[in-house]
Write a structure and sequence with these properties.
alpha/beta, two-stranded antiparallel ribbon
């Protein structure tokens, strides 16, 4: 659900209270290679066979109707839908052996965005919510932001509660008059502060009391001031201001929704946001995939390649981990409608930056793209790797309602093979 200005103020104050409570004694690694994460999530189920893992030697019913290009990733072939990405592929790690068992959209999305298989007993928090919970605020920017919005409950907080939820910018960043929802400074700041204070502090005192923290109850005024600063500081407003970007940079990313969302994500992590999820959809190609996928991938290809090149040129790629993910792949054979159906048994994701190897392929699928052939990677492994690079202890347990301890990541291993120079 989108977070309004008023709700974000309230949630932020609860988050500050939680940070005071759990932050004592928590030591985050000072040598963490990544300071921020940008995740581009392509909802619907991106076909690995028509993008990152083409099979040009396979029968036509497997390889489909698209051609390939030679990439800078050691000459590895990519689909013609990734021509720009092929030119920056020497900066990324490509995982061709992602695998899980959830062929339903909701279940697959939950699995990829949380690192956990769905459970009827509990809703797990997204990776972004855990990052917000563990790392908190930096430079007056919300720690977890979705662009343009979350779009799914699986980018939410699960059992962690609303205090660690994403700030959704709302709207279309490609529009000329795009403004971040609820961020514009009020004309009379003092009056607005007083109105919010009167309306919210009584409820917040009760909320803090329910959390069982007497110190927080008496400190609600201070929390209010800090929460306001998150969305009312000059630094925050400047970070969200896409108009400050030169026209040439906007053209480079592409002046469409995904391109401008990725450019905004770069501005946000540069300013201090811990994790930005760029959430887009339209990759559920059960019909006419050779016709309908290329125009969707044109935006992805341009935006992703521009983001990696831009971060690298500025030096930010060294400390910013970028992920390109989806909930599952597509069937290894073209169906009767010239499309591909859901296929979680093997698919591809791309990583870059934040200590990830440059120009590396990890794992492989078999000759028809139906199964992992070598080095299978599970969603929990990807989650563990992200947490590790951010300095979050993968062995830590978080507390669900009722004081129940739950692993921050379960049965996942850090992918050491994709890390390093």
């Amino acid at each position: 659900m989108p977070v309004s200005r008023r709700a974000f103020l309230g949630h932020s104050m609860l988050g500050f209270a939680g940070a005071l409570r759990v932050g004592k004694g928590v030591a985050l690694r000072a040598d963490a290679p990544a300071q921020a994460v940008i995740q581009i999530h392509l909802g619907g189920g991106l076909s690995h066979l028509d993008t990152f893992d083409p099979k040009p030697e396979a029968p036509v019913e497997v390889r489909g109707g698209l051609n390939t290009v030679v990439s800078k990733l050691g000459g590895e072939l990519l689909s013609e839908t990734l021509r720009r990405t092929a030119d920056i592929a020497d900066k990324i790690t490509l995982i061709r052996s992602m695998t899980h068992t959830e062929a339903d959209h909701d279940r697959g999305t939950h699995t990829m965005l949380t690192g956990f298989q769905p459970s009827p007993a509990i809703l797990y928090p997204s990776v972004g919510a855990v990052v917000a919970h563990e790392l908190g605020v930096r430079n007056d920017l919300p720690p977890y932001i979705c662009v343009p919005n979350a779009g799914t409950q699986f980018l939410g907080t699960g059992y962690l509660g609303a205090a660690h939820g994403p700030f959704s910018v709302g709207g279309n960043p490609a529009q000329d008059r795009f403004r971040v929802r609820d961020l514009a400074a009020p004309q009379n700041v003092d009056e607005a502060r007083r109105a919010h204070r009167r309306q919210m502090l009584a409820d917040l005192d009760a909320d803090f009391a329910a959390l069982g923290d007497a110190d927080a109850v008496h400190a609600s005024e201070a929390f209010y001031q800090q929460a306001w600063a998150l969305i009312d500081s000059a630094n925050a407003r400047a970070a969200f201001d896409l108009a400050a970007e030169p026209d040439a940079m906007k053209e480079r990313y592409g002046r469409r929704g995904l391109g401008m969302s990725c450019l905004l994500a770069r501005r946000l992590v540069q300013a201090g946001t811990r994790i930005v999820v760029v959430n887009t959809a339209g990759f559920d190609h059960h019909q006419q995939i050779a016709r309908d996928l290329p125009p969707r991938m044109a935006d992805v290809d341009q935006a992703f390649a521009a983001l990696i090149a831009d971060l690298d040129a500025s030096g930010l790629l060294a400390t910013t981990m970028v992920l390109l993910t989806t909930e599952f792949g597509r069937t290894p054979r073209i169906n009767g409608d010239a499309g591909r159906d859901h296929w979680p048994r093997v698919f591809s994701v791309a990583l870059a930056g934040g200590g990830v190897k440059r120009g590396h392929v990890h794992g492989s699928s078999n000759a028809t793209g139906a199964e992992p052939e070598a080095d299978p990677v599970h969603p929990a492994d990807l989650t563990a790797t992200v947490f590790n690079q951010l300095g979050i202890d993968c062995a830590k347990k978080l507390l669900a309602p009722g004081g129940r301890p739950i692993d921050v990541v379960r049965d996942g291993r850090v992918l050491r093979e994709v890390l390093g120079a």
